[in-house]
Amino acid sequence: MHRGKGMKFVGDSRVSASRTSQIPKDYSEYPGRTEAFWPNFLLKEWLAGAVFLVGFLILTLAHPSPLGGLADPTNAAFIPLPDWYFLFLYELLKYEFASGQYVLLGMLGIPGLAFGALLLAPFLDNGPGRRPHQRPIAVIMMMLALTATIWLTYTSASHVDWEARAAMDQPVPPASVEIDTSHEGYAVYEANCMSCHGESLEGGAAGPTLVGIEYSAEEIAQIAQEGINTMPADMFKGTPEELELLVQFITSVNEQAAE
Amino acid sequence: MLQKIYDWIDERVDITPIWRDIADHEVPEHVNPAHHFSAFVYCFGGLTFFVVVIQILSGMFLTMYYVPDIENAWKSVYYLQTEVAHGQIVRGMHHWGASIVIVMLLLHTLRVFFQGAYKKPRELNWMVGVLIFFVMLGLGFTGYLLPWDNKAFFATQVGLQMAEQVPIIGDELKILLAGDEEIVGAQTLTRFFAIHVFFLPAALFALLAAHFILIRRQGISGPL
Amino acid sequence: MSEEKQQVSRRQFLNYSLMGVGGFMAAGLLVSPIRMAIDPVLKKTSSAGEFVNVGLAVEDITTTPQRVDWQIDQVDGWYESKPGRSAWVYKNEKGDIVALSPVCTHLGCVVSWEGSDKHQNEFFCPCHDGRYTKDGVNIPGTPPLAPLSVYEHKVENGMLFLGKEISRKGA
Q: How many angstroms away from the CA of B66 is the closest CA of chain C?
């Protein structure tokens, strides 16, 4: 690189008028073989990325992102659950030693210790050896923490009935259907179902919405009599004629909603 | 023509060294899965960054339709999912990307850990990486609330109650996040939106820049 | 020499492959977001333009322009509202109903019939003294460069229904 007297610049800028050489840095004595970042290395990296992207897009197309019902702060039946990567923390707080008077231990103590150790790992595990068997304590600690996290996440997730949870929390279209209160089935609905499923079938604390359900007329009649999931049997107390009117009413609302 | 434009810019700005430095630097062969298949573990970091790019892109496009307001947030997400062509897919990309990025980040962290790649001289980069992990978890927590559906609302309420338990500053911390002493509502949503879309991404960019600059400085750790 | 030449072509090949893979990734990433972003351009199902009863009986329409105000049901994405509209309605010499938009084609102020004492039998815009004849045509020498827009209209059960606003720019 040219230095000192005789340097030329572009105009009055700091950009040098004489071009520096473009020979890449010398790695010939670097241990092990190397290759250029562009294009050799990047091509393989991007091939892996392309395969990954295809998998990712397939996942996205196969599983549409879920949207629950509009947040209802008065919905007391809803069991809060965090996103899956916080489940381990959620589960940890169920244990006796991490709740009640020890809640700080469970919330700040244990996770703080674990994440603090993770942050400071290079200083806690500061020996020269890099191979796992040269630093057994660090590796064992990591294995324990990892196993505990996976196990906590698994325990927490296995207690949840994900399908029932999703069924409880269906999105109701905002321009909610207009309920035809003059329908003969509405009176039957009012007498038998409204206390749980809401005035306009929107669902409530004890029952899900009935708008946008995918049951046939026979299935609706059956559910009304025999119950489903958390719904007990014999909630419907009426004559078969009334049942038919009720089913007609619910299906008519759903047909309207489907438009 | 393109060459002339390039030369015109290069004469004034001298950009060649910038990209030559990036393009020509040598990467050790032992990280290339084409040479040893087991080297695929070195891909996790790059894939994490790739998902971050997906998140930034899909997130930018999602804000075209999303409003951070408790009256309209859910409606706008519902509209986006049901009425807008490909809206479902773009939200899906952001939704699944949020999970995949945590998985990839975890795998990358484990690779670095079990290879002992954080040892001298790379301690600082490890710490930057762990901070990126925290920022990602923060992005996940704040982003979860934004659709304003039941699971978002109640999960956030629990999260805020946990913040309240922190000794001494607990109450203030909760109010700072929620915007109100009691209510989880309109002010909470705008705060979480601001944190999710501006504050944490800004921190993420700074940390990612530091992460990459350190990698370029120090090179990839050698084979075991 | 020949070896060097081959080296260059190999590098070029790698470069092209890299561009191809990069293009594939960019496309895979961007197709859906861009399709989503341009959706309004392709859909064009704006609810503006449906015929709405403006609450004016046809027999009440005279040859003097009278202002009618009505509300339309507007669905703007996830947001539904009832914004107001207004028009100047009268019957012309042939007995046809004319409904003119009151929005001045100059800079969007609101014009009114005989809005200025100096200019009888004309629409007048107070912002820049724009003037239009009774049929909504701008008077040369005043700021507006196009006639007032007209509303599509129809009559049902003796009531006036107004629909889409049709610009007469360049007409």
A: 10
Residue C1 lies in a domain: no
Q: What total number of domains does chain A contain?
A: 3
* Sign of CA pseudo-dihedral A189, A190, A193, A199: positive
Chains with 3+ CB–CB pairs under 8 A to C are A, B
Q: Which of B31-45, B181-195, C157-171 has the lowest mean pLDDT?
A: C157-171
In a domain, C33, yes or no: no
- Start-to-end CA distance of chain A, whole Å, equals 74
List C-alpha distances in Å: B32 to A84, B22, B42.
32, 18, 8
Instruction: Let me know if residue C36 belongs to a domain.
Output: no
Asked if the structure places residue C34 within a domain, the reply is no
What subunits make at least 3 CB pairs under 8 angstroms with B?
A: A, C
Q: Nearest chain A Cα to C28, which residue?
A: A53
Neighbouring CB atoms inside 10 A of A249's CB total 23
Nearest CB partner across the interface for A169, out of B24, B81, B150: B150
- From B127, which residue of chain A is nearest by alpha-carbon distance? A119
B108 vs C8: which has the higher pLDDT: B108
Q: Could you tell me where the DSSP H helices lie in A70-177?
A: 87-92, 103-104, 110-119, 121-124, 136-158, 162-168
Of C33, C42, C77, the CB nearest to B90: C33
Distances (CA, A) of C92 to B79, B108, C65, C135, C159: 45, 78, 9, 8, 18
* Range(s) of the domain holding residue C126: 52-166
Q: Looking at the structure, do residues A55 and A88 belong to the same domain, yes or no?
A: no
B84:C36 CB<8 A: yes
Q: Are residues A151 and A195 in the same domain?
A: no
Q: What are C's interface residues with B at a Cβ cutoff of 8 A?
A: 29-37, 39, 42-43, 77-79
Percent of chain A with pLDDT over 90: 26
pLDDT single digits (tens) B3-44: 999 999 988 888 888 888 888 888 888 888 877 888 889 999
Tell me the CATH number at C74: 2.102.10.10
Tens of pLDDT, residues C39-95: 988 887 665 667 888 888 888 888 888 888 888 888 888 888 888 888 899 988 888
Instruction: Tell me which residue range forms the domain holding A33.
Output: 27-65
This prediction has a pTM of 0.82
- Segment 8-37 of chain C within 8 Å of chain A by CB: 11, 14-15, 17-18, 21-22, 24-25, 28-29
Does the distance separating the beta carbons of A57 and C25 come in below 8 Å? no
| pLDDT over threshold 50, residue C1 | no
Which of A40-49, A135-144, C131-140 has the largest mean confidence? A135-144
Q: Which residue has the higher pLDDT, A171 or B179?
A: B179
